[in-house]
Specification:
Number of strands: 19
Mean pLDDT: 77
Low-confidence stretches: 390-423
Strand order of the largest sheet: 2-1-4-5-6-7
């Protein structure tokens, strides 16, 4: 089912071509679009209709007014686009894109439709496929995709508002619309075509019947030669069968030769496999020896454990123990990682707190800078614009004239009461007063700017009015001159045309007319004399007489040909009987010989029957022979199918085993490649520059260093993670023992105390001293004592002295450990890879051995299956040859039986063909030839008479044509003579008119000069006024813009200052300091816990490593035992293959069979050469007969007769069928029309009763009737009638505007429900036009009920576009009262919005349904 999903519009009518596209989503079951008049609602319907059908709105066929006008935006080119996403009838999501462009040229506007695009999702590739189409192609495709016709889309589903009342238009328009909707026109045209074609075919049937009779006689004569040719062809077939038999014997000999070769190949193949298995066995024994040498006597456990079960059990028990310890190791490592993460998070938190403290300090500095900038901005504005500020009653008057001057010792005071120009702070009330003065000044500048614009515009309007008046007078004079010029040019053109006509044709004289009339009279007399010639009546009589004689001769010839055919048939039967008897004897001999040749194979497979082949005496019709051969064939076929089934099972076993071998081989190859990759990587890591060697050197250096200080680090073979853990623990210990750097801390503390003791005030030095701990003020001796104490602390050497030597040792030791840690971090991945690759290499080597053993086992199994399949294949080949021989026997038996039945039939025919025994074959042929010559003589006479008659008719036709041409020339010359007289009179009139026009033009030319001078004067005045206006207005506008910019900056600074003042900076600073101390304590605690955990982790790692070495030793012993077992299996395989070689069937006689097959092949090839000679003799006889049949008289006579006969009967049947067709189409069209009209009227009746609230019209319906005319061109007329009381009246011209609107909506809804099943969408544009309140209410109820009833249809969509919000509210209320469907979530509002260029464009907004 089709539906519409989304519509996007750009550049159409009032929609902007430059802004983003405006889109509408269409919901189920209802979409409502509201908006004021003129906002662009109808454009949505127009765009929907254009996207679906390519049709433009009514009155806009060229499409120019459909695209946004380029002149309104000052552009030469405007592009418009409509996109519609819809669901096709097949359920596919598709998007159609249609584009247009409108170009503004100098004097004209050019409109162009661009190629459209159709996008869809390819389900196979899951990609979007876009196809470009011409507009006409899209117009054809889209109605098919939606499943409705184009007229339904244009006039019913997406009908334009201006065309909404078409059901009540005049009869011609209504008939055309309904004919398009019913699509009946093409069916009536088809009926006309059927009737015309029927008449043509009936005429053709008569001609074909005459041609068929002529071809029938030639056909009988050619059949005699064809029968003789078929007899020779049968001889060729028999020779060909013998040839095929010899070829099959040669093929059998070649097959026997191939079988002997195959046995020889089998023996050689088994020998090769024995040699390969022997080599593998030796390799396995050598591998066992090497593995034992690698283990050594101490680790060799194969004597105590002869099989792998006990070792596997030991390995599993040890694995369980190792897994438990590994789990414990992983748990400790996880705890270590969690502690490290916790410590890192705490350190990150410490750094974050320090950063926040620094940002708070920076924010304070920025606040001071903003205060300075605001102060400077206020001074600049006061000086530039001379502000006069009136303070409140508590403040004095302050005048801004370049600086702040206190008139009564009053100044602006900041929050802290400071008047320091380096940190100016202004009170809130003072700032508000200043901003009020700024606002007043801005209004004053705006008023001055607007007053200047209005004043200058008024002056310019006066000049423009005067200039327009003068221009109008000048254009009036110029228009009058233009009209005179056009009239003068028209008269001159007419005058020239008259002269040209006179010169081109020349004058016609009266004497020319008389001469032509006399010639016409003479030719008419000659025509009448030719018509009265007596030979015109004599010739048809003679022709009819000759035709009667020809018909009589044809009948005699036809009778003689029947006699000739019967005589030939008897002769042919005698010859055929003799030949068939000889062939039967030869065929029986060949069958018996073939049966004897195949007796050995039949006996071998127990298929030979007990009885012998039936003789010809016991089996005259051959049925017993056929039954005998078919019984043998059925037995052989059953045996063949059984063996074939066994072969299929054997081949399945071979295929399964082969797949297993291939899988094992692929796995083996993959593991070999992996082993090579791992080995290569290990070699890289173990090289001189590899990470492993460097790590070993680093560990050696670490062990030497740690041994020097009495510590024992991890061994060289320890995991890299253990080494890194050890180094991290040593670094933590070093950092805990680090010497404190008290000097830097003391210097920072003294500077901070000194800064906290200074407080800004109004003293000359700008600050006073307070206690940095309790903020108590200091004075006199306290200040001097404080400064003296601070100076002495700065110079105290005991505070700033540091142990430099300890710091140097600490730094060197820390740097060395950090260098080792950095190295391990860089090489950690390589070291982990090294350990992992070593383990992986060991596993791969073990797995490769196991895979090699498995592959050898499967290959041995595969060989056995193949041998079994070959044995069954040999038996199947024998049975296939036997089956082919039985097929040949069956064919030969069938041919023998058929030939015996033909002999009996021909003997019976001989008894029937004795009626013409008294006539001779040659005599009959001679008589037919004489009568054919007589008939040809009659035909020649008829041809001569026809030529004479044709010459007489041509003479009459020629004279009639010449007489008619002369009459025509007489009339033409009389017409030319009269036209020349009129032309002379017209030329005189035109000369007089041209003279008067020249005088009037001279008078108008004198009036133009003073008007031009006045216009130029006014134009100069207008330009001077415009220049003065631009200068003054531009100056005021620039001053206003500059003032607004400075005022905006001042407000922004004030807002930023106020926002900062509202924050609590000092409280945040103390809280951050406390959090920092707490975090440092947590870090110290976590470090102690981590150190204890790492010691336990190191011990457990050593234990796990020792256990892995013991596991490897057990696995090596298991490998040794498995290799020994594989060697024993190979030894058994060698013995089996040797036994298989001895058991190959026919290996001792294979070479003798090969020689016999070669000798038989050579013998059969000689016999084949002799048969080829006999074959060529018969071929020559066949060629002679074909040359006779290829003569002109008998060539393709059967085919010609067959084609003529087929054409005759098929044409006759086609004419009869066409008559049935057009009758059926006519009846179906009438029935379809009546049914559809009934369905439409039923729906119209229901909707009218539901919507119309008046009492005068009870019902409306569509009345349809046949137009008067022939039944073959059936046509209908339509009208809409209304029922008033018991009378039916035409509704057109008798109803009100509201009734017309309501009736049109009801009819459209009925048509949509009848014809729009596949596309359930319908759009109503302004449906409440001319409707009063009761009818609007009724329409709302009807639409709500339609929505409720059709909501179960998955593709039903009602698009309602209106400006009437009261009607929308009614519809919403009625819908909410109904159940069975969900209300839409959104509706759309269309409005006009002013864009940045000052133009108004249509916009579409999505609104919530609850706001409606």
């Amino acid at each position: 089912m089709a539906s519409i999903n989304r519509l996007a519009i750009r550049g159409v009518r009032s929609f902007s071509p430059n802004d983003e596209e405006q889109a509408v989503e269409f919901f189920f079951p209802c979409t409502i679009i509201v908006g004021a008049n003129g906002c662009g609602k109808t454009t949505i319907i127009e765009s929907l209709k254009y996207a679906m059908t390519g049709a433009f709105p009514p009155g806009n066929k060229s499409g120019q007014a459909f695209v946004h006008d380029p002149r309104s935006i000052g552009s030469q080119l405007v592009k418009a686009q409509v996109k519609l996403r819809f669901t096709s009838r097949g359920g596919n999501q598709m998007v159609v894109v249609r584009s247009m462009e409108l170009t503004q040229k100098k004097t004209t506007i050019s409109f162009k439709q661009l190629d459209g695009a159709l996008r869809t999702l390819d389900t196979a590739t899951n990609k979007i496929v876009s196809l470009s189409h011409k507009c006409s192609e899209l117009d054809r495709q889209l109605p098919q995709l939606l499943g409705v016709s184009k007229p339904i889309l244009e006039h019913v589903l997406f009908c334009h508002q201006e065309d909404a009342s078409w059901p009540l238009q005049e009869g011609a328009v209504l008939k055309k619309r309904f004919d398009d909707i019913f699509d009946s026109t093409r069916y009536t045209k088809a009926i006309d075509v059927f009737r015309k074609t029927e008449k043509d075919l009936l005429a053709k049937v008569k001609d074909l019947k005459a041609d068929l009779a002529g071809l029938s006689s030639h056909r009988h004569a050619a059949h005699g030669f064809q029968k003789e040719l078929s007899r020779h062809q049968e001889q060729l077939d028999q020779l060909d069968d013998e040839k095929k038999q010899l070829l099959e014997d040669i093929k059998d000999a070649e097959k026997a030769q191939a079988e002997a070769d195959e046995i020889i190949d089998q023996v050689e193949e088994v020998t090769t496999r024995i040699e390969a298995a022997t080599a593998q066995h030796a390799a396995k024994l050598e591998m066992v020896q090497k593995q034992k040498e690698m283990l050594g006597k101490e680790q060799d456990m194969t004597k105590d454990h002869p099989n792998t079960e006990s070792l596997q059990k030991m390995l599993r028990e040890y694995n369980q123990q190792v897994e438990s310890q590994s789990d414990e190791l992983e748990s400790l490592r996880s705890q270590e990682a969690n502690l490290e993460k916790s410590i890192q998070k705490l350190r990150d938190k410490e750094r974050a707190l320090a950063g926040r403290k620094a940002r708070l300090e920076t924010a304070r500095e920025h606040q001071q800078q903003r205060c300075k900038e605001r102060y400077a901005k206020m001074e600049h504005m006061a000086q530039t614009y001379s502000f006069n500020l009136q303070l409140s009653s508590q403040q004095a008057n302050v005048s801004f004239d370049g600086s702040f001057v206190a008139s009564q010792n009053t100044t602006f005071t900041g929050v802290a009461g400071s008047t320091d120009s380096t940190n100016p702070e202004i009170g809130k009330e003072e700032m508000l007063s200043f901003l009020k003065v700024v606002d007043d000044k801005e209004k004053e500048l705006q008023e001055a700017y607007q007053d200047s614009k209005v004043r200058h515009q008024a002056e310019e309007d006066k000049l423009v009015a005067a200039l327009s008046d003068l221009e109008g007078r000048r254009k009036s004079v110029q228009n009058e001159r233009q009209k005179l010029a056009e009239q003068r040019e028209k008269a001159s053109a007419e005058q020239r045309e008259l002269v040209r006509q006179m010169d081109g044709h020349g004058r016609v004289r009266k004497t020319d007319i008389e001469d032509t009339r006399r010639q016409a009279t003479r030719l008419a007399k000659e025509r009448d004399q030719a018509n009265s010639d007596p030979r015109r009546t004599q010739i048809p009589v003679e022709i009819r007489s000759l035709e009667e004689k020809i018909d009589s001769t044809k009948r005699e010839i036809e009778d003689d040909r029947m006699v000739l055919e019967s005589l030939r048939h008897c002769a042919e039967n005698l010859s055929a009987i003799t030949m068939l008897q000889e062939q039967c004897e030869k065929d029986v001999e060949a069958l018996e010989e073939t049966y004897r040749d195949q007796s050995f194979l039949l006996q071998k497979h127990n298929l030979k029957p007990d009885e012998a082949i039936p003789s010809s005496d016991d089996d005259p019709d051959g049925h017993k022979l056929v039954s005998f051969v078919e019984s043998i064939f059925d037995k052989v076929r059953e045996k063949f199918e059984t063996v074939k089934s066994d072969l299929s099972k054997a081949e399945d076993d071979v295929a399964k085993t082969q797949r297993s071998c291939n899988e094992r081989s692929a796995v083996l190859s993959s593991q070999q490649q992996s082993l090579h990759t791992v080995t290569t990587r290990l070699e890289q890591l173990e090289g001189e520059q590899g990470s492993v060697v460097q790590a070993q050197k680093m560990v050696e250096a670490l062990r030497i260093h740690e041994a020097g200080i009495g510590l024992s680090p991890p061994s060289k073979d320890a995991p890299p993670q253990d080494l890194l853990t050890y180094i991290n623990s040593r670094l933590s210990e070093i950092e805990e023992d680090a010497p404190a750097d008290d000097a830097e801390f003391a210097r920072k503390l003294l500077k901070k105390l000194e800064r906290l003791a200074k407080r800004p005030d109004d003293s000359p030095q700008g600050f006073s001293l307070v206690c940095p701990c309790c903020d108590r003020g200091m004075a006199g001796d306290e200040v001097r004592n404080f400064k003296t104490k601070m100076d002495s602390l700065k110079k105290d050497s005991s505070l700033v002295k540091t142990a430099d030597a300890d710091v140097a040792v600490y730094n060197n030791l820390k740097a060395r450990y950090e260098e080792w840690r950095q190295f391990l971090n860089e090489k950690m991945e390589d070291l982990r890879d090294y350990r992992r690759f070593r383990e992986e290499k060991l596993k791969l080597e073990i797995s490769l051995e196991q895979q090699n053993d498995d592959l050898a086992t499967f290959q041995a199994t595969l060989t056995g299956h193949k041998d079994n399949a070959k044995t069954i294949q040999a038996e199947l080949d024998e049975l296939k040859d036997l089956l082919d021989a039985c097929k040949r026997l069956s064919g030969e038996a069938s041919r023998i039986s058929e030939k015996r039945m033909q002999i009996d039939q021909k003997k019976q025919d001989m008894t029937l063909d004795t009626a013409y025994a008294d006539r001779d074959l040659r005599t009959v042929e001679r008589e037919i030839a004489d009568k054919m010559e007589e008939k040809d003589g009659f035909m020649n006479k008829i041809n001569r008479l026809n030529k004479e008659m044709t010459a007489l008719n041509n003479r009459i036709t020629q004279l009639s044509t010449q007489a008619a041409n002369m009459d025509k020339i007489v009339r033409e010359r009389e017409t030319k003579f009269a036209a020349a007289q009129k032309n002379d009179e017209r030329k005189a009139e035109l000369a007089e008119q041209l003279s008067k026009m020249q005088e009037e033009d001279a008078k108008l030319q004198e009036q133009l000069a003073p008007l031009k001078r006045k216009i130029e004067t006014k134009q100069r005045d207008k330009e001077r006024a415009r220049a003065l206006r631009d200068s003054e207005v531009s100056s005021l506008h620039n001053k206003l813009i500059e003032f607004q910019s400075e005022a905006k900056e001042l407000r922004q600074l004030t807002k930023a200052i106020d926002d900062f003042a509202a924050t609590e900076v000092s409280g945040d600073f103390d809280r951050i300091s406390a959090e920092t101390s707490e975090v440092l304590e947590q870090i110290s605690s976590k470090d102690q816990e981590l150190k204890s955990l790492r010691a336990d982790l190191s011990k457990l790692q050593d234990t796990v490593q020792n256990q892995e070495r013991y596991k490897k030793m057990i696995r090596d012993n298991i490998d040794v035992i498995e290799t020994q077992n594989a060697a024993e299996e190979l030894n058994k395989e060698i013995e089996r293959l040797q036994e298989q070689k001895r058991s190959v069937k026919g290996s001792d006689t294979a070479y003798d069979e090969h020689k016999k097959a070669v000798a038989l092949k050579q013998k059969r090839q000689g016999e084949l050469a002799r048969l080829e000679g006999r074959f060529m003799e018969v071929v020559e006889a066949v060629r002679s007969l074909k040359r006779k049949l290829s003569s002109e008289e008998y060539k393709d006579v059967d085919e010609q007769y067959r084609i003529a006969n087929i054409k005759f009967h098929t044409t006759q049947l086609a004419a009869e069928d066409l008559k049935k067709y057009w009758n059926a189409v006519d009846k179906a069209l009438l029935k379809y029309h009546s049914v559809k009209i009934g369905e439409i009227n039923k729906i119209v009746r229901e909707l009218w009763l539901l919507t119309y609230k008046g009492e005068d019209i009870g019902n409306i319906e569509i009345v349809s009737g046949e137009e008067p005319g022939s039944r073959s061109s059936r046509s209908y007329n339509y009208r809409v009638v209304m029922t008033k009381g018991n009378s039916q009246l035409d509704m057109r011209g008798r109803c009100s505007a509201g009734q017309r609107v309501l009736a049109s909506i009801v009819i459209r809804l009925a048509l949509a429900e009848t014809f729009g099943v596949n596309c359930g969408c319908i759009a109503l544009d302004e449906p409440t036009v001319n409707l009063d309140y009761p009818n609007k209410k009724g329409l709302a109820v009807a639409l709500a009920q339609i929505i409720a009833a059709r909501s179960q249809q998955s593709n039903f969509q009602l698009v309602l576009i209106t400006h009437d919000e009261e009607f929308v509210s009614m519809t919403k209320t009625e819908m909410s009262m109904l159940t069975g469907f969900s209300m839409p979530e959104k509706y759309f509002q269309v409005r006009r919005e002013r864009a940045s260029d000052g133009k108004f464009y249509s916009k579409i907004d999505e609104k919530d349904w609850s706001e409606l």
